[in-house]
Amino acid sequence: MSRFRKYAPGWIQGGVCVLVGLLIAAPILYGLSMSLMRDGDIMSYPPKLFPVNITFENFTGVIATVPIFQFILNSSIVSLAICLGQLITCSMAAYAFVFFRFKGKHLLFMVVLATMLIPSEATLISNFLTMTNWGLADTYTGLVVPFVTSGMGIFLIRQFYMSVPREIKEAADIDGCGSLRFFTRILLPISTPVLGALAIYVIISSWNQYMWPLLMTNSPEKRTVQIGISMLQFSEGVSYGLVNAGCMMILLPCIVFFMFFQKKMVGAMTVGSVKG
Fold first, then answer.
1. How would CATH label the architecture of 58-269?
2. Rounded mean pLDDT, 111-120
């Protein structure tokens, strides 16, 4: 790849990047095309890649069939709450692992890393029983609480904190700056890149959750987008145009969000990687 970048002309490199990008985006583009077709055009033979007569009936049909905007609002509330919870808990835990000295610190951090190896399906039933016993079934709180912290978030922020010069903490201690004040006034303001990276990752992963909202929600008013979109499939058959229109409506916020913040996310992932 390095030789290709060195010897290939710029227009060839650009063409290869465009081709790869189109291949990756092809399923999304075809789904968008199907959402603008009538069912007769979708099922025609040979298959059509592009709509002959563009129609927005599928999008209006989604709005008339399911409360799609309520689903989007529910997913937004849950995703933002999980993001806020992880930013608080993971940053505080990482701060303790880096700047505090206590017995068993390294062993405890290994335990935190070990939780990253446990698949979410393994804790699904225990989390469900706990939330049900607490009376949090079919609530926003029940959707959020099991995910307010993560081993990956603690590890990511810890790696960034390890790149912060210890002299800053020592100077703050000499000036009489307490641990909480140093954390809130000095450390957090310089941690915005890694916090932004974690926030983007958490919001996108929370938005795409399926199994946990499926177990926790019973009423349509609390369903998230991934569960609500299944309501577009009827017993008498599937309208592929309607389903694809719904998918495009719930996919658009993630695409726009990622397009605006992808550079910050990719750049922040490498912060602190040279130390620790």
1. Orthogonal Bundle (1.10)
2. 90
